[in-house]
Amino acid sequence: MPVLARTKVDENNRTTVPREVRKLLELKDSNSIEWVYEEGRVYVRKVTGDGAAKLLILGSTYRRSTSPEPLPAIERYDGLLYRIVRRNMDKVKKKGVDIVIVTEDLEIITPKTKLPYKPPVGSKWRTLPPTIMDLKRIEKLRSQVLEIVRGKEYDEIFVALNKHYRQLLPDLTPYTKKVIADFKGLGEKAKALKEWLSR
User: What angle do CA 106, 148, 40 make, to 5 degrees?
Assistant: First the structure.
């Protein structure tokens, strides 16, 4: 990965955004930037769109790519909601929607996390429960989700998890203006997700 520039942090923990980065991101005086930590790396991105931060929480799916080599989670899982997100990836990036995925092992991963093929447990997507109902893992999941929502002020959080996983999450309402999570079925959830990504 090429180094664009190098800066120093002053005694007040401030630094200047280098000219090369400002030019690359097309930053102007009134723009905001975010410092993002993902998979052991920190990067800077311009806050785009209406400035309203959004978080999408996806779950593992019964339908998945059987490719033997490790694939990014956004490609490994192939359920309807993942196909909608992939078709709308330009909107996701443009609006700066953050995405996290809850695996069947109750781990929080990013869409870029590479996953080997692992056959799903259960007989269909509705019955796909967490493979481990360990209280320590559930507490760790809740803690990780709270860390994410406390780390950034989200205007909206869209929870696209089945009922087995949704009940394991902490209450998110104190950390956002709006939680979108109650759906009568997959069709309603898919329609709501399409609309949410288009706003």
Answer: 80
pTM: 0.74
CA distance 55 to 120: 25
- For the chain, the 3-state helix, strand and coil shares in percent, each to the nearest 5, are 35, 20, 45
Which CATH number is 54-198's, of 1.10.287, 3.40.50, 2.40.128, 1.10.357? 3.40.50
pLDDT tens figures, 41-96: 887 877 765 556 899 999 988 899 999 999 999 999 999 999 999 999 988 888 88
Q: Which two tokens stand for residue 139?
A: 């507490």
Q: Distance (Å, rounded) from C-alpha 196 to C-alpha 125? A: 22
